[in-house]
Amino acid sequence: MKSVASLSAAVAVLSGTTNAFWRMPCHDRIGLERLDPIVDPGTASSHGHTIHGGSNFGMSTTYEDLRASDCTSCQFSDDKSAYWTPSLHFVHDGGMTEIVPQIGGMLSYYLLYGDNLKAFPEGFQMLAGDTRLRNFSGPVPDPPTSSWTADDMTQVSLGQKSLGFNCLNYNKQPEGSRYRHFLPTKEFMDENCANGIRAELMFPSCWNGKDVKSDDNKAHMRYPDMIDGGSCPEGFETRLPTLFYETIWNTFAFKDKAGQFVWSNGDPTGYGYHGDFMSGWNVDTLQSAVSTCTNPSGRVEDCPVFAGSLQTEAEQGVCKIQNVMKALSADNCSGPTDGLCGNVPVQYGPQYANPLKAGAQGGEAVITPILSSVASMPTQSYAPAHSKVVDSYGGGVSVFNVKPPVVPIAKPTPALAEAAVAAPAITPPAKAEDANPDDGIISHTTYTRDGVVYEVAIKEVINIVTVDSKRRRHAHQHRRNIGRN
Ligand SMILES: *[C@@H]1O[C@H](CO)[C@@H](O)[C@H](O)[C@H]1NC(C)=O
Ligand SMILES: *[C@@H]1O[C@H](CO)[C@@H](O)[C@H](O)[C@H]1NC(C)=O
Q: Is residue 346 part of a domain?
């Protein structure tokens, strides 16, 4: 038997100097359209998006246009920003495709990590994620943040880990945020995710301090080395708010129906999930909010900056895109219809997907035969976050990277065999002693809206408990980790 000589010390240390945040609910989408003014400006976007925020949104939207929006679908009436991501669709056997019901619009978290936070400047826009990605190069699941190596912290690797698909089941302990970086199989969702799937996306927050945009919408930004917390690379030291999007899709509505889920960009894997942001804030207002909205509840109701300008859900719900574009009149992105709008083909990967063409498209819908609902993906079993109450506002602790991985079931059908050769690398299960349940603990809060429970990590907490001699090394790693933050 292992000797546990134990000194136990419950030490909780916050990493970083601030851990405040608020979440901006956007109760409804303003449209489901092939629009993306930052990636495909001036034309129809290659694929459909679920769009939230300022109503004056279109193919060539500018900051001034957004500011001039008649309304916003977000709770604070003067946040005219635009927030958009791909939408999730269900492809029935035979190709008939329909939108998966979206529950409760979206939440945009403004996580206030780092020092001397600056508001998004006028004209600021950025993109997170890569629509053409169809694979994941890191170990599954993520190693504990305390043991991340340089390989885990390249911008490509951080980007791949910045997104997550949380299997929702409100009768179970919630999974941790960004625990799983791919869309689980339909079978898995039917069995486990009674409340659907929550798509999660963390944006980079380290800015080069001068460019409000860049050609690829990414070059002016970097992730800090812990994705949310951590330090910024050289040349990108200006810290902006860390945006974190959550969008819930009711995949369970298709339980027992034959078919598969696919994102609007033709991605059935989830690796190509991405999100766009165009600031529509008055800069002074956002700066005040960033500096003063530090109530740990994260509720916009609890921040004086937003007082008197909060909309009801009904008010948010009536806000829609002001000008419906002729070029898009032939589109029907919600369906049921044949295929995806924009005639987007489904691309399984694992190789980098072919680029999609922007612009209005005629012609036949691309009906991609369903090869399999298992696109050579790893599996990660439902992994409840370790939950501990650590704060006075009812938050728990969400740990998402301590469970030894379940060995993947890569069961390609014959048709898929060729595409399946390069399933993501899977590391052997972590040794028990490495699976310190306190590694990478992050706290989260929950709140309920429309019967939907939302929760998110808001800060990293290092909690060292019952350290035996073998684990002390871990404790040191944690301390180094704190130092870096
Ligand atoms: C899309 O097509 C479906 C099926 O024909 C129809 O019920 C729905 O109203 C259409 N939606 C739009 C926005 O045209
Ligand atoms: C995975 O994606 C990357 C980035 O697009 C690509 O370079 C690589 O070839 C892909 N891996 C495989 C096995 O296709």
A: yes
